[in-house]
Design goal:
Layout lengths: L4 E17 L2 E15 L2 E7 L9 H10 L1 H6 L3 H7 L4 H18 L3 H4 L8 E2 L2 E3 L4 H10 L5 E5 L6 H11 L4 E5 L6 H13 L2 E5 L19 E3 L18 E4 L1 H4 L2 H13 L3 E4 L6 H11 L4 E2 L16 E3 L2 E3 L15
Parallel strand pairs: 5-6, 6-7, 7-8, 8-9, 9-10, 10-11, 11-12
Antiparallel strand pairs: 1-2, 2-3, 4-14, 13-14
Helix pairs in contact: 1-4, 6-7, 10-11
């Protein structure tokens, strides 16, 4: 790789409405935008970081600036893995490198990643934790949704929340995400309702560090690890506890690690899922490539924003589609 010109900045994107999960309410999302320029081409990457690891865009920007000289001397995706640890800073730079390489080489990122031509994917549409009536109303706004994911909080009202959404949309795939908010007694108490209401996936029921609560727990519904897994190195400790792993580029540090992680997880017998930390279409596009290797896709982040970048990913008939003009294509889009 020849020398690079680096530009990095933090952007704020307001949400259309507050979004609540266990322990947090989000009203806006800050993201780190990285641009890398070489040979007349520009590659872009966006990352939101990991709020529960205190990995936030302001500190991510400082991290990128601390290695500016190494990046601008010329860096590859492979050497980046040694330069920066997993997390949002590496994600933004890694995705910018993929985008830049696709433009310089004339090959779209999906070809560079040895994937088949990307297909449209069924994605979940999220309902933040709220009153049962409000969550059902939110679910109804996703008129063509094929899959819905509910944020739960470990409160008694959780059953009513699930029931209200199931009554509103009786035929959709339904998943629930506790964001570490359950206890084992609460999950055991809730399980009959989860089965009755045809919940297809339970995501991160227990707090990080309490994964042993799943030892010997025979769940009739698949359980996914989210906060309990960062990158591929964490996979072995999940065996026998989780059946599914949620891969997020902000956690694992970019598309390079995410693809490796998806392939390794599948080889170990896990189902794979790709998720997001909320962000614009620029963050969804590389995750969309990971989604080609996943059985569950949760890439609805731009729908929570007041506005999005252009060009943008498309949501139609419950599907997510993303063409090369958004990111990872062979030409530089006009908004760069």
């Amino acid at each position: 790789m020849e020398s690079l010109s680096l530009h990095a900045e933090v952007e704020r994107w307001p949400l259309a409405a507050p979004f609540r999960i266990t322990g947090y309410v989000f009203e806006a999302i800050d993201v780190l935008l990285v641009r890398l320029e070489s040979q007349g081409h520009v590659g872009r990457g966006e990352a939101a970081g990991i709020y529960y690891k205190n990995d936030r865009p302001a500190s991510m920007l400082q991290t990128v600036e601390s290695v500016r000289a190494a990046i601008e001397r010329g860096i590859t995706r492979e050497t980046l893995q040694e330069l920066l640890p997993a997390g949002g800073a590496r994600n933004a730079v890694d995705c910018a490198l993929w985008d830049l390489e696709s433009k310089i080489s004339g090959q779209p990122a999906w070809q560079l990643a040895a994937l088949e031509r990307p297909r449209a994917l069924v994605t979940t549409f999220g309902c933040g934790a709220d009153t049962p009536q409000s969550m059902a109303a939110t679910a109804r706004t996703y008129a063509d949704a094929r899959a819905i994911k509910l944020k739960l909080t470990g409160e008694p009202v959780d059953e009513d929340r699930i029931r209200a959404v199931r009554e509103a949309l009786p035929d959709v795939w339904l998943g629930v995400d506790a964001n570490q908010g359950f206890t084992r007694p609460f999950l055991e108490q809730l399980m009959p309702a989860l089965v009755e209401l045809k919940v297809a996936l339970i995501e991160q029921p227990f707090a990080v560090g309490q994964e042993a609560l799943l030892d010997g727990f025979r769940s009739p519904i698949p359980i996914a690890a989210d906060e309990s897994i960062m990158d591929a190195a964490d996979l072995p400790k999940l065996i026998g506890r989780f059946s599914t792993v949620n891969i997020k580029l902000d956690k694992c540090g970019g598309l390079s690690e995410a693809l490796l992680m998806a392939r390794k997880a599948r080889s170990m017998g896990f189902e794979t899922m790709v998720g997001n930390m909320i962000g614009t279409s620029l963050a969804m596009a590389p995750a969309f490539l990971v989604g080609q290797l996943c059985s569950v896709v949760d890439l609805d982040g731009p729908l929570f924003l007041k506005s999005d970048r252009a060009p943008c990913v498309r949501y139609s008939d419950g599907l997510l589609s993303c063409d090369d003009t958004v990111w990872g294509g062979c030409t530089t889009p006009p908004d760069t």
